Amino acid sequence: MEFTAQQIADFLHGTVEGNAQQAVHTFAKIEEGVAGALSFLSDSKYEPYIYQTASSVVLVPNNFQPAQPVSPTLIRVEDPREALARLLMLYESMKPKRTGIDPLAFVAPTAKIGKDVYLAPFAAVGDNAVIGDGTALHPHATVGPNATVGNDCILYANSTVYHDCRVGDRCILHAGSVVGADGFGFAPSAEGYEKIPQIGIAILEDDVELGANACVDRATMGATIIHSDVKIDNLVQVGHNVEVASHTVLCAQVGIAGSSKIGEWCTFTGQVGIAGHITVADHTTLGAQSGLPGSVKKPGQTLMGYPAIDPKVWSRAAAVYKTLPEMAIELRELQKEVKELREKLKNEN
Fold this sequence. Notes:
There is one protein chain. The chain folds into three domains: about 5-95, Udp-n-acetylmuramoylalanyl-d-glutamate--2,6- Diaminopimelate Ligase, Chain: A, domain 1; about 100-310, 3 Solenoid (UDP N-Acetylglucosamine Acyltransferase, domain 1), CATH 2.160.10; about 320-349. Helices cover about 20% and strands about 30% of the residues. It contains five helices and 39 strands. β22 and β23 (about 190-195) form a beta hairpin. The longest helix is centred in the C-terminal third of the chain and has 25 residues, at about 325-349.
């Protein structure tokens, strides 16, 4: 596929500066530009590359003022990063979609398969399962008995939707991700641990994405619910009976213990840990490796550390923490001096 700078500008409602008929057929980072590629500049620290890039067209902010001549054609837009995302979505949507059921795929006789579905070799669809229109199951993707997957979903290799679970429209499950594995429920006894049956389900609403090897456990009773437009990164664990509200982002290795409720538009960065049975308010941001042992009631906060607190306070505490060994030595010396002074004063009296 090839587009001119003018066609791209028209689509983005931008303006062309340079050769409006300059054609591009691929994308490249500005520092790795090649002829025929479209790049973007949104961060000023990358500005030096625009004067040397080989890319043919570059998206730049409306207020960009080059410090020296540039050779690529420029397309001025309000937000180059957002504009690039729109172009990438357009590019992806124009790729031809595979359809059809491979002879090596397994489809139970009672399953219902929609129109324009693609089932790759060794994909499996269980009894009474429903697969919506335009959905694709890649090799070894599995949809269990009585499970439902909506329209225009992509289930990549070895992803699994367990029995009775529900996945909405336009969801993406990356390789190895699991919807509906048993929640971590065991009752201690004199002989060890007895497994508590997990009889609930897991629900993914529309436009949810699960990263590779992410897992959303089924509920002990009721449902674990991931609401619409939640984005979950690789290696994330969502425990049983958790509810994650719409538009929240969970980055790599986040872990959420059972029965916690996460608000809308939250951002949990890498390796954040959430205790069970707590509530996190809307628009909460947690810094990397933060831990929440209790609820966050005030919306819109940014927190960091364990237990998670205001980032400025945490930074000051972290600075003190680095000097604790020296402070401990000084404290012991001071304690020794105070003891000696007390004994001296006692003897004088």
